[in-house]
Design a protein that fits this description.
The complex is a heterodimer of chains A (115) and B (112).
Chain A: E1 5-7, E2 10-13, E3 19-24, E4 31-37, E5 43-50, E6 53-56, E7 65-68, E8 75-79, E9 88-95, E10 105-106, E11 110-114
Parallel strand pairs in A: 2-11
Antiparallel strand pairs in A: 1-3, 3-8, 4-5, 4-9, 5-6, 7-8, 9-10, 9-11
Chain B: E1 3-7, E2 10-14, E3 19-26, E4 32-38, E5 44-50, E6 56-58, E7 64-68, E8 73-78, E9 87-94, E10 100-102, E11 106-111
Parallel strand pairs in B: 2-11
Antiparallel strand pairs in B: 1-3, 3-8, 4-5, 4-9, 6-7, 7-8, 9-10, 9-11
Classes of the chains: A mainly beta (115), B mainly beta (112).
């Protein structure tokens, strides 16, 4: 009865490298949400995905960030050419169809540090 | 646009004392409201949620919150603080059926 699994838990990247964050939703959940938490701030919505579809990416930075949720496998949040300002905790949540955020479960997050 | 304000980035109470964490929101539509707890280096755990049913919502670990529309508030309370309650608490409001708008969080410190 696994919950939302995110890996890695901690990720260190040098400026200019790529960061790939993975999120495996709760079994049976087809909706995934990514949030970013900057130090001393609350979470900010980034993107909402369903299997093979991006539903709302209004919170994603226009450049360097992308997300996918393929038919098979985990959801991936990809950050290209990372900069120091990308250092944050990235949380993934999942929910079953039709439940939206009233039944969303969160993972433990990936803490990205850019050096 | 919806927003959430949590009054006090840090709240300190003595063990056994009342816990009161404040949350005010703005919303143009009837909101869904949530409280989450985050322990150090952990994920977010749902404490309780208001989804337009009873205005007094009971959650896990002895916490409860009351939705007051006239005051646009959803304050979190617990009658008697325990050392294990030390964590960061986030209030969130929903502006759709999927996107959560979050407060900046309140760190709860429990004094022995």
């Amino acid at each position: 009865n696994a919950g939302v699994m995110q890996n890695p838990r901690h990720l260190v990247r040098r400026r200019g490298q790529e960061a790939r964050l993975r999120c495996s939703p709760v079994k049976g959940h087809s909706h995934v949400y990514w949030y970013r938490q900057l130090p001393e701030e609350g979470l900010k919505f980034m993107v909402y995905l369903q299997k093979e579809n991006i539903i709302d990416e209004s919170g994603m930075p226009k450049e360097r960030f992308s997300a996918e949720f393929p038919k098979e496998g985990p959801s991936i949040l990809r950050i290209q050419q990372v900069v120091r300002g990308d250092s944050a905790a990235y949380f993934c949540a999942s929910s079953p169809p039709g439940q939206g955020n009233t039944e969303a479960f969160f993972g433990q997050g990936t803490r990205l540090t850019v050096v | 646009a919806q927003s959430v304000t949590q009054l006090g980035s840090h709240v300190s109470v003595s063990e056994g004392a009342l816990v009161l964490l404040r949350c005010n929101y703005s919303s143009s539509v009837p909101p869904y409201l949530f409280w989450y707890v985050q322990y150090p280096n952990q994920g977010l755990q749902l404490l309780l949620k208001y989804t337009s049913a009873a205005t007094l919502v009971k959650g896990i670990n002895g916490f409860e919150a009351e939705f007051k529309k006239s005051e646009t508030s959803f304050h979190l309370t617990k009658p008697s603080a325990h050392m294990s309650d030390a964590a960061e608490y986030f209030c969130a409001v929903s502006d759709s059926n999927y996107q959560l708008i979050w407060g900046a969080g309140t760190k709860l410190i429990i004094k022995p």
